[in-house]
From TrEMBL:
It comes from Paenibacillus eucommiae. This is Kynurenine formamidase. It holds the Pfam family Cyclase. Gene3D superfamilies: Putative cyclase. SUPFAM superfamilies: Putative cyclase.
Length: 225
């Protein structure tokens, strides 16, 4: 087996949702200045970088990540789909229909659009003209794919900044506002190195912080090599 990390390091230079806070990192104690150990103070928006949206993010009746079963974060039957998209484009129902049988068997869906190539080369457009999943596609997933417990993507957010109202509705669908179940959302991943044919399992372990809806997440893929 081989293990590959799909989540990014958290860095001040990373792109964030336009207008939102990101991260500040500053020394708290430093050996170089006479302290006995190195420590850092981190101020972080919980929806920055690779992170997982819990149901509470858009659904006030939904659970926070720390309240959910641990089995939620281990994906035994992940499905990785290549669905190429460019600036401000949406993944739509017609993009998913050819994979309906596979989607119904999977417990998690990861979409590789190829848009992650802009994360370093054009950070502003990566954030402000990102890909999204349409609300109709999210409704279709909720109605037709009851075994899914997570959806991950190689762009900044389920919502495209260019389609804000539709993106809000998309979040509401997946996070359970209109259904008896919910699907967690894993945003801003690096899926470049994954061969779908060798993908065995995915572990997505967020920080479990009391009171917050969602959190940064470490995502690891297990590959059959």
């Amino acid at each position: 087996m081989k293990y590959v990390r799909l989540s990014y390091d958290l860095a001040k230079s990373d792109p964030g949702w336009p207008g939102s806070y990101s991260i500040d990192i500053e020394p708290y104690t430093q050996i170089a200045r006479g302290d006995v150990a190195n420590q850092y103070k981190i101020t972080l928006l919980n929806h920055f970088g690779s992170h997982m949206d819990g149901p509470k993010h858009f659904n006030e009746k939904g659970p926070r990540l720390a309240e959910m079963p641990l089995s939620t974060f281990i994906m035994e039957h992940p499905l990785l789909l290549d669905i190429p998209k460019s600036f401000s484009e949406l993944v739509r129902v017609e993009d998913l229909l050819p994979y309906e049988d596979e989607l119904q068997r999977a417990d998690s869906l990861f979409i590789r659009s190829g848009f992650s190539k802009f994360r370093e080369s054009d950070k502003i457009r990566y954030a402000s003209e990102g890909v999204g999943i349409s609300s109709q596609a999210c409704q279709y997933i909720m109605d037709r794919c009851p075994n899914l417990n997570a959806i991950g993507m190689d762009w900044i957010s389920l919502a495209s900044y260019a389609h804000g109202e539709d993106g809000c509705l998309a979040h509401q669908y997946l996070l359970g506002m209109f259904h008896s179940h919910y699907i967690c959302i894993i945003e801003d991943l690096n899926l470049d190195a994954i061969d779908p044919a060798r993908l065995e399992r995915i572990f997505a372990l967020p920080l479990f912080i009391e009171q917050i809806d969602s959190a940064p997440v470490t995502v690891i893929a297990e590959l059959n090599i």
